[in-house]
Amino acid sequence: xxxxxxxxxxxxxxxxxxxxxxxxxxxxxxxxxxxxxxxxxxxxxxxxxxxxxxxxxxxxxxxxxxxxxxxxxxxxxxxxxxxxxxxxxxxxxxxxxxxxxxxxxxxxxxxxxxxxxxxxxxxxxxxxxxxxxxxxxxxxxxxxxxxxxxxxxxxxxxxxxxxxxxxxxxxxxxxxxxxxxxxxxxxxxxxxxxxxxxxxxxxxxxxxxxxxxxxxxxxxxxxxxxxxxxxxxxxxxxxxxxxxxxxxxxxxxxxxxxxxxxxxxxxxxxxxxxxxxxxxxxxxxxxxxxxxxxxxxxxxxxxxxxxxxxxxxxxxxxxxxxxxxxxxxxxxxxxxxxxxxxxxxxxxxxxxxxxxxxxxxxxxxxxxxxxxxxxxxxxxxxxxxxxxxxxxxxxxxxxxxxxxxxxxxxxxxxxxxxxxxxxxxxxxxxxxxxxxxxxxxxxxxxxxxxxxxxxxxxxxxxxxxxxxxxxxxxxxxxxxxxxxxxxxxxxxxxxxxxxxxxxxxxxxxxxxxxxxxxxxxxxxxxxxxxxxxxxxxxxxxxxxxxxxxxxxxxxxxxxxxxxx
Length: 564
Known about the structure:
Helices cover 44% and strands 13% of the residues. The chain is of the alpha/beta class.
């Protein structure tokens, strides 16, 4: 196991020391694992809201300490309830005459240790109330409601209670609204894999590639059911089925939605989950007033997510929207009633000849030859790029060829319109670097030939040279750096030289093709200075550059067309 830790036994203390080192609004008790808001009000201190539990759920719970949310967070060892003494120390440090509310997730250890600490604090004259959060809807058919686990929805209770306390409400009021919200809150999670507890050193369970765990808790345990992977949308649908049924949320219910990552789920995947959840909730007639997406309460490095739903009214929305300085709270969560989709700006209309020009048939023939060459060389170019790049060149140029094939016949009516249409098609079809490079070169060449129906060899050479120069300017490369420019630049120079020497188009092009071949072959011994191949250094030697070889491929395809 490789983890960026020093020792499993020291990880929690060092975690807390790291947090207070980063935030001037936090303090750490010297003798206990307790994070406190800093500074605490000296007089007329509002109700303290305290939560906590085992570590490994970051950013919970310390991430929610700050004005407007938690006053203190108590940390136990990884996935282990904090001690009674630590909870009691937090109450003593955080609570003033207004007392303290303990927000406790419904696990036996947390319930016992927080509960006993509350009793001891009351015996010292400190007013204390406790709210148990048991939002895990996955256990609806497994245990009684009062025995359900508290999971990610607890963060919403932190926010509601913290905002109410900051507004100056009494302990009884803060506890009442937190309990009411907890009773209506529902959450459920799904895991795509297990997490690794530092002290154990290996994953807690094993899943096949096509399996998931449904209805897991937040301590690395297995779920209530193992089943096949369904894909993002279907997974969200199943989670929502459970939450809505168990919560009894009728059509028209106003909801807050929390999309929570379990620790190893990237923002990309969470955004897909949020998209599906918002869409499906609206399709079911539910009104999503607020949505938050991110990692709020994790299970170390577990891949997966949970969804939480909380019915809201104007009073709850006001508390959820209230400002807070807690680092991990992402903001108001306001969402549009529907995604905003704007039409793309319309480009200036291109002038396309209405009737075929004198070279229309030859231009179409040339395009067909290029298309056939790119398709025929896909495997070869993919192999070259895989050995000294990211392996997508063959596929990218195949997409480009298909885009060229789809162009209308009118695109080939004149040289400038043909080059411009090719540039636009390749720009749209090819991702990565090849699309922009070819598009830029073709657009520049089209500008050179604008209005010219039957270019001379010198004009073709000027257009070719201009395109190559545009490509070099865009990419910043120079000949000798192992790029497509090592085939293009010598070909362009040879074509220009042939035009100036009075050579025929076929002779000049043959010379240009030979120069391109020589340039592409020479890249095999060049040390790469551009692109992903530059990361390989000496390991790229002996392999010709795929982009330069691709240039030779389509130039070879053009030779018989030009020779006729």
